[in-house]
Amino acid sequence: MRLGVHVSISGSLDMAVDRAIERNCNTFQLFTRNPRGWKFKDLEKDKVEKFLLKVEESNINPVIDHMPYLPNLASPKNDVYNKSIMTLCAEVKRCEVLKIPYLVLHLGSHLGVGKKEGRERLTDALEKALDLKVDGLMLLLENMAGAKNSMGSTFPDISEIIDDLKGNQTRIGMCFDTCHAFAAGYDLRTYETVEDTMKKLDDVIGIERLKVVHLNDSKGDLGCGLDRHEHIGVGKIGEEGFKHLLRHPVIKDKPLILETPIDKKGDDFRDLERTSKLYREANSTSSE
């Protein structure tokens, strides 16, 4: 099992690797810069070298980068849209320097102008990033929770985005977020519903495009449209749902990244331990 969490780069980029090792992760996700602002500093050569050396020595893979929060690649507002494209292209180049194979991105909001217009903006932005032709890098489209005006909350929405790209589809993949899927109406609580959801993903997008899984429970009910992550097994998907997910052949062999809260209920260590336990239980049961 490739299991990890989103780790902080506070202090220095290479400290993300230290934090992943401290948590016994064999994969991890990070922001390469401050995710809550538009401005960022260039990568420093010595810190890049430390990061690459620590990743190599730890044998942690894959490392996954996540786009910052502010960009909206479907925005009808030109100032935000142009800054979003610049941020995406800069992040692609940072992945090249850091030898990161996957960049996960949210698909944004059309802000009420409609999915067609939003999709046109989004595909144009993706094509500009793909035109940089960074070897070994895939852009992973993350399914969203179904909030009003959001892009990519359903498998058909994501499929249409990929289909609209003029070439370059081979460097587009998917990141499947369990909380987002549940909030968007894809039930993950039983064997049958997990099977049905994975079949729909395969039929509509193609299971070969699924490269990373964000493993998160949901505070909200099925189809609520709310992006509210919960600790593994504590939310509305529940322990049984995660056992079905963790024994599914499509899910269990993918890099699994936890983006769960840090609060009075628990932290990364708790959720990693709980997920490992559920994985063992799920796969020992399925092999009996």
Explain what the structure shows.
This protein starts with a strand and ends with a helix. The chain has one domain (3-287): TIM Barrel (Alpha-Beta Barrel), CATH 3.20.20.150. The protein is built from ten helices and ten strands. The radius of gyration is 18 Å and the shape is globular. It is α/β, with parallel strands linked by helices. It is 43% helix and 13% strand. Strand 3, helix 3 (78-98) and strand 4 form a beta-alpha-beta unit. The strands form two sheets. An eight-stranded parallel sheet has the order 1-10-7-6-5-4-3-2. Strands 8-9 form a two-stranded antiparallel sheet.
Give a short overview.
The chain is α/β, with parallel strands linked by helices. It has helices at 15-22, 45-58, 78-98, 115-130, 155-164, 178-183, 191-204, 238-247, 249-252, 268-287, and strands at 3-5, 28-30, 63-66, 102-105, 138-142, 172-177, 210-215, 217-218, 229-230, 256-258.
The CATH class designation is Alpha Beta
H/E series: EHEHEHEHEHEHHEEEHHEH
Beta-strand fraction estimate: 5-15%
Our measurement of the CA-to-CA distance between the termini, rounded to an integer number of angstroms, reads 19 Å
Task: Tell me the CATH topology.
Answer: TIM Barrel
In total, the number of domains comes to 1
Helical proportion, percent range: 40-55%
Number of DSSP E strands = 10
Number of helices: 10
Global morphology: globular
Radius of gyration, in Å, reads: 18 Å
Class from helix and strand fractions: alpha/beta
Strand order of the largest sheet: 1-10-7-6-5-4-3-2
Under CATH, the homologous superfamily reads Divalent-metal-dependent TIM barrel enzymes
Query: What's the architecture in CATH terms?
Result: Alpha-Beta Barrel
Mean pLDDT: 96
* Poorly predicted segments: none
Characterize the main sheet: 8 strands, parallel
